[in-house]
Amino acid sequence: MLKTTISEVYKYVDQEVKIGAWVANKRSSGKIAFLQLRDGTGFIQGVVVKSDVPEEVFQAAKAVTQESSVYITGKIQKDERSPFGYEMLVTGIEVIQAAVDYPITPKEHGTEFLMDHRHLWLRSRRQHAIMKIRNEIIRATYEFFNEQGFVKVDPPILTGSSAEGGSELFATKYFDEDAYLSQSGQLHLEAAAMALGKVFSFGPTFRAEKSKTRRHLIEFWMIEPEMAFYDHEDNLKVQEEYVSHIVQSVLKNCELELKTLGRDTSKLEQIKAPFPRITYDEAIKFLHEKGFDDVQWGDDLGAPHETAIAESYDKPVFITHYPTSLKAFYMQPDPNREEVVLCADLIAPEGYGEIIGGSERIHDYELMKQRIEENNLDLDTYKWYLELRKYGSVPHSGFGLGLERTVAWISGVEHVRETIPFPRLINRLYP
């Protein structure tokens, strides 16, 4: 018997095949049973007609329980009514393991219940679709940066200092000295860029931030490119081309998943470079015109402010040239206006907030030393980072894209907890 997967059945129309699967759901009448089957690659309906199969096969179809594992054989045929386009006329069922009292039933469940059973919730059609979109974004990320001549570099997760200079760090002991879980691989990637030109990383980052918003996770994944000889303008072009690439890749390769989630793809079809840009000054003026009198020049922009700005555009929008006081110590000041830096946050449409933060980095030794001291950072700890400005320093830029927020935006999911297999939140370290 030919063995295949659900995603490959289109190759075997009118042929009999064998698939290893789980029974996601079922319904039956006196003469026919419908089995909703999944195997990780996709979902397909298995139709068991009593008159066409031995009695024991039909009885097995009626008795099989939700999430039981099976080997199922049958003939593949096209089905225009199915979102997948195919169904299986079942001829045989072999139960591998019969599941009893599966906790997640087709009825409604509360969020906490589903989060407690995240290891099982991942099996649902909705979660399957989100994870497939996440995977496509990752695949397209490697494709984009490889085609652009970037080298993948893996910065350390255990570090002796903070990339941002902040206090939201997870501390641990590294034998007899203090260490921290990485907030960002940026500083080490700058060193790699001085050796390899254009580099990027993809890995986990950690923020001990006591936030409960739908946009925040304690552990999340970031894509972080760093580029030697790239200025602020060059940096923005890479960002908009990269985001355009991943959105169009999802539209092309995840049509069924987007349909499963009910995503309005017309909004995604507009996401093509170039993206609109406004300065921080213009953002403050705009917010005042919209009645946000609570925010003044020098204040950071919160979620309501970002959403109000994003609603004026049908593409992601760059907010550039933030005040120096709001941003990290390593950002290059505007040569024409030192109170602002050459940076940008990329705000996604539809209320999803910032998905990218980036900047041109300071490349002058004396200025970087001054900024380290002004931010009360230990010069010895940052000695190696400062030395990058001592031995062949060049203008360079980079950015970081938060994967989970990007998955949420592209897939249309409200909360980032659904965009990572096992979310880590303030109150959740299980499962």
From TrEMBL:
<dbReference type="GO" id="GO:0005524">
    <property type="term" value="F:ATP binding"/>
</dbReference>
<dbReference type="GO" id="GO:0140096">
    <property type="term" value="F:catalytic activity, acting on a protein"/>
</dbReference>
<comment type="subunit">
    <text>Homodimer.</text>
</comment>
<dbReference type="Pfam" id="PF01336">
    <property type="entry name" value="tRNA_anti-codon"/>
</dbReference>
<keyword id="KW-0030">Aminoacyl-tRNA synthetase</keyword>
<dbReference type="InterPro" id="IPR002312">
    <property type="entry name" value="Asp/Asn-tRNA-synth_IIb"/>
</dbReference>
<dbReference type="InterPro" id="IPR045864">
    <property type="entry name" value="aa-tRNA-synth_II/BPL/LPL"/>
</dbReference>
<dbReference type="GO" id="GO:0006421">
    <property type="term" value="P:asparaginyl-tRNA aminoacylation"/>
</dbReference>
<dbReference type="GO" id="GO:0005737">
    <property type="term" value="C:cytoplasm"/>
</dbReference>
<keyword id="KW-0436">Ligase</keyword>
<keyword id="KW-0547">Nucleotide-binding</keyword>
<protein>
    <recommendedName>
        <fullName>Asparagine--tRNA ligase</fullName>
        <ecNumber>6.1.1.22</ecNumber>
    </recommendedName>
</protein>
<dbReference type="InterPro" id="IPR004364">
    <property type="entry name" value="Aa-tRNA-synt_II"/>
</dbReference>
<dbReference type="InterPro" id="IPR012340">
    <property type="entry name" value="NA-bd_OB-fold"/>
</dbReference>
<dbReference type="GO" id="GO:0004816">
    <property type="term" value="F:asparagine-tRNA ligase activity"/>
</dbReference>
<keyword id="KW-0648">Protein biosynthesis</keyword>
<dbReference type="InterPro" id="IPR004522">
    <property type="entry name" value="Asn-tRNA-ligase"/>
</dbReference>
<dbReference type="Pfam" id="PF00152">
    <property type="entry name" value="tRNA-synt_2"/>
</dbReference>
<comment type="similarity">
    <text>Belongs to the class-II aminoacyl-tRNA synthetase family.</text>
</comment>
<keyword id="KW-0963">Cytoplasm</keyword>
<keyword id="KW-0067">ATP-binding</keyword>
<dbReference type="InterPro" id="IPR004365">
    <property type="entry name" value="NA-bd_OB_tRNA"/>
</dbReference>
<dbReference type="GO" id="GO:0003676">
    <property type="term" value="F:nucleic acid binding"/>
</dbReference>
<feature type="domain" description="Aminoacyl-transfer RNA synthetases class-II family profile">
    <location>
        <begin position="131"/>
        <end position="431"/>
    </location>
</feature>
<dbReference type="InterPro" id="IPR006195">
    <property type="entry name" value="aa-tRNA-synth_II"/>
</dbReference>
<dbReference type="GO" id="GO:0016740">
    <property type="term" value="F:transferase activity"/>
</dbReference>
